[in-house]
Amino acid sequence: MLSSLTPGASVGEVSTGTRSIQGVGPTTAAFVGRAPLADAHLHEAVAIHGWPHFLKEFTRPDSPGTDLSRAVYGFFLNGGRRCLIVNIGDARRLTGGTRKREGLAVLEEVTEVAMVAAPGWADPASHDALLSHAEKMKDRVAILDAPEDVDDLELLTRMALLEAPGTKPGEASASLPPKGLRPRVSDQGFGAFYFPWITTVDPMSGERVNVPPCGHMAGIYARTDVSRGVHKAPANEVVYGAGDLVRHVTHEEQAELHSHGVNCIRFFPNQGIRVGGARTVAGADSEWRSLNVRRLFNFVKESISVGTGWTVVEPSDPTLWTSIRRDVGAFLLRLWRDGALQGRTPEEAFFVQCDEQAHPPESIDAGQVVAFIGLAPVKPAEFILLRIIQHPGGMEVEEVKNG
Asked: Where is the Tail sheath protein C-terminal domain (predicted)?
């Protein structure tokens, strides 16, 4: 309120009550694997801000390169700016032990991760571990490598089978279909699968080597996020540092693989080596089959969760509901204007419901604040729904199946 006890004009500042929701950074990657210096920072999440920083923390002059180091180099070469490294040394699995946090479990304590990869870990158990981690955290996607050597491309279209406990290596039930190499389905699209490996120069030895694609892809994700936005599919982008490919995929082969959720990296005449797809490992008819849709929703969920954290200590009443509609609506309006949401008008692009209808008496008695948010990332007539629930113990943002 402005007041003045003397004649003349008074100028003051009045709070509007608006709390701007800022987008969280979607460009931080996490890599899990064996570092060149195998005992450096074991099972710690170490933030790295560039290739020289990685060399300082995880190598020494005589250290040989590893899949992890080559992936990190590819990440920064392709536009990555910040990543987390979890060195698991000579561990034989990504998930670590049960008594303390090791491997992927270390990253459960880190909320800034937007993508996670284990360079070169291309077996079914590792794919499952990465997908399970991303599905549990719900704020990141797993970037999955195909095996280096694939003689029969049809194997990439068939889902891999995890060995049942007690099964001897190579032993399979006669009733099971032939084993494939494709990761299992992630119903909500929390992973993307890439083939083939890239031929490049090892930055540590100077030798020509084949490297898993996940590091280069994570860098392309980050580069696209900065230049165009997280809503832009990281496809048709040049793979910097790629001198060749372990296998050259034809147009016909790519069409078949793409229909099964395999993103191919290809050489295109006069265009160089580029990423030829942006599919997730969700089902073919899933609303989460497009990688940019999955990552956009991760970005929106995290941004709203952080930006509305102040509501946790507020009473659930119409005043608060109005504030939530206003703040979330303003954030989504900016996304629509940036081209992240489809629709000729904001009404076609999104809606925010936080009113009496969303708050039955039992919800208010439980101290909950509930908001339904609908976004149209692909078609103006189709919404994918989010539900925000604020309660005395904290806040939850969950996806709601439409229909």
From this structure: 285-388
Q: Are residues 129 and 239 in the same domain?
A: yes
In a domain, 364, yes or no: yes
Q: Does residue 394 fall inside a structural domain?
A: yes
Distances (CA, A) of 325 to 21, 124, 182, 371, 373: 12, 44, 42, 8, 9
Kindly report, residue by residue over 314-353, the tens digit of the pLDDT.
Answer: 888 889 889 999 999 999 999 999 999 999 999 999 999 9
Whether residue 101 sits in one domain with residue 223: yes
Portion of the chain with pLDDT greater than 90, in percent:
70
* 24 domain-assigned: no
- Number of structural domains (the chain) is 2
Residue 240 sits in a domain of what CATH number?
3.40.50.11780
- Range of 390's domain? 309-400
Q: Are residues 212 and 318 in the same domain?
A: no
284, 388: one domain: no
298 within some domain: no
Give the pLDDT score at 12. 46
Within this chain, do residues 223 and 313 fall inside the same structural domain, yes or no? no
- Write down the pTM of the prediction: 0.88
pLDDT of residue 402: 58
Residue 359 has pLDDT above 60, yes or no: yes
Let me know whether 258 and 327 are in one domain: no
